[in-house]
Amino acid sequence: MPRRPASIAATLLLPALLTACGASQPAPPPPPSAEALAAIAPQPGADRAALARATDALFTRNDVGGTRALLVLHDGEVVASRYAEGFGPDSRFIGWSMSKTVTAVLIGLLVADGRLALDAPPPIDLWQRAGDPRGEITLRQLLQMRSGLRHQEKADPVYESAEVRMLFLDGRDDMAAWAEAQPLEHEPGSTFAYSTPTSVILSDIAARVLAPDGSPEQRQQAVAAFLRTRLAQPLGMGSMVAEFDRAGTMLGGSMIHATAPDWARFGEFLRARGVARGTQVVPRGWVALMREPSPAAPDYGLATWLNRPSGGERAMLFADQGPADAFALIGHLGQYVIVAPGRRLTVVRLGKTDGEDRAALVEALAGIVAAYE
């Protein structure tokens, strides 16, 4: 019998040698469940089983809170869709702080119309009095959360927190008036301070432009009509609705509602640089500005979170894993619309996740985005 070359013999013996030495290959991942696989399109543009496992984690892991809706869109097509029991594509979900990004787009429309200027003080009479240092605050600084106003978000105790006081305590009847009356804590433009009252100020600015000297009812009607005709209808977001306070100011920092498919349409609109259904709804340059890092916070643009290191301990997305061009709307209790333009991807997750589980939720969402590497 002819002798086998040594290299061939070694190759044939290698598995046995590895086993004998205690070495082993990593076990393959388990196959996804039937339920997980059923939520994935036949050709999702990524490994179907891997995507099924990644999306299933949002519903089965015990450390990510409760996911109520999950949509993944690739190249504009829904490739994963799943809802918790009791929820479906017609369920409206509160955006919480995702509402801030919607408000920023409304402001962008008014800037594009020539009715507001990005680097000029906004039309707030209280700030325009002689000697008031708040008169130096610009619209851009408000959008980038660096106004300098004393708005302490998530204070301890909670009843001292700016958003709680404004929404539920002494500011609740006229929220913009309360937010605008707060003094400066920092020089305008110098310091990033995430603030729900700031987005209510932006909502008030929109009402002042659209209904000057209007009654609360007129202010509400004007802003609601603008939201509907200039944004919701062009995007096909028939479910989008906003809440207003007694002064007729839109609660643009937290209380805009829409279905999961409509939140996905908003993400796709941003991915398409302001285009929806073939129409340039907001200028491309405005969406580019929304994704440009703030001078005071490298992970924040114009009311938009960026997948970049914060320069500190804050980690809203997954900058260590990429992609660098990803950005997101992020809301209280784990609301996410994540857009990764380079991967032609939009991910919507809606549900309820407490603060201690947020890091695990972000890890799970990163797994979905990673499926499209």
Explain what this protein looks like in three dimensions.
The structure is a single chain. The protein is an alpha+beta fold. The protein has a domain at 99-255: DD-peptidase/beta-lactamase superfamily (Beta-lactamase), CATH 3.40.710.10. 36% of the residues lie in helices and 13% in strands. The chain contains twelve helices and eleven strands. It has helices at 6-20, 34-38, 48-60, 99-112, 139-143, 162-168, 175-181, 196-210, 216-235, 260-271, 284-290, 358-370, and strands at residues 66-74, 77-83, 92-94, 241-242, 256-259, 275-276, 279-280, 305-306, 327-331, 335-340, 345-352. It has a six-stranded antiparallel β-sheet with strand order 2-1-11-10-9-8, with helices on both faces. β6 (275-276) and β7 form a beta hairpin. The longest helix has 20 residues, at 216-235. The chain is globular. The termini are far apart. The model is unreliable at 1-20 (pLDDT under 50).
